[in-house]
Amino acid sequence: MQHRVSDSLIDDFGDSGSEHSGPAGLRADLNQNGIPDIVIRRLPIYARSLKYLAGEGVETVSSGELGMRLGVSAAQIRRDLSYFGEFGKQGKGYNVAYLLEQVNGILQLDHDWPVALVGLGHLGRALLHYEGLSEHGFNISALFDHNPEKVGQQIGDLTIYGMSDMPDVLSSLNIQMAIMAVPARGAQEATDALVASGVSAILNYAPIIVQVPHNVKIRHIDPVVALQSMTYYIDDSAKGSRAGLVRNGNGSERVRSGKLD
Question: Is-contact 203 219, C-beta < 8 A?
Fold first, then answer.
């Protein structure tokens, strides 16, 4: 992937006639493989905050001010951005509109992306109708399901295809990204079908870790795991009767006092 600063991006930093040049912008020798994945994961968060700032009419922001909004250090923001180039000016900060356009360009969010959705159960249908995806340029353009009773059904302007149709449909629509909302038992099979059909990026909602080749990027989203990682921090010692409930291995509950044991 090659990134290039648009000729239309003009430096807004500094006063007219200043002897200091503006931000250099993106590195000409940007190496995609040399950037830690955790840095890429933070860029959309930076872009979202910058978008809010722009909507508030803020023209410039320092790394410290941006960091306070995001709960990270100013040094972290400067370090992350330095992987890609120089976008600010010491003592002046970042021009919000300029930096937002640069980050969107790095993430290739300056154009829309067609996306395939695999699995049309409750979760899949909820994702299909989630307007936040299209608002940010991710348009669900193809639907797939392994259930023959669903294949051929129409949802809006889209038809649900069978898994065997995937290579032809994805190729004809030039789809490289997919969202997978299938049960755990079918997740690896669906993943393999997507990879074989040329998909390069998969967002996996199935409650299981699936394997992909090194050239395919995958993100796993499991709300249950996320909730379980937060219960550790909750002090429920004085929260009433439910504080006395403990879960058995089969998922049922009993009271620690033994009254309902």
Answer: yes
Write the CA distances from 198 to 82, 116, 122, 129, 168, integer angstroms.
32, 12, 26, 25, 10
Q: Would you state the torsion angle of the CA atoms of residues 253, 259, 260, 261, taken in this order, to the nearest 10 degrees? A: 70
Residue 81 to residue 30: CA distance in whole angstroms? 12
Segment 132-170, tens digit of pLDDT: 999 999 999 999 999 999 999 999 999 999 999 999 999
Reply yes or no on whether the pLDDT at 215 is more than 90: yes
Helix residue spans in the chain (DSSP H): 37-55, 63-70, 74-82, 96-106, 122-128, 131-135, 166-173, 187-196, 223-231
Sign of CA dihedral 157, 217, 204, 152: positive
Sequence-distant (≥ 6) Cβ neighbours of residue 88 within 8 angstroms: 13, 23, 63, 81, 94, 95, 99
Task: Give per-residue pLDDT as tens, 33-86.
Answer: 678 999 999 999 999 999 999 999 999 999 999 999 999 999 999 999 999 988
Q: Any idea which residue has 């996320």 for tokens? A: 226
Q: Global pTM?
A: 0.78
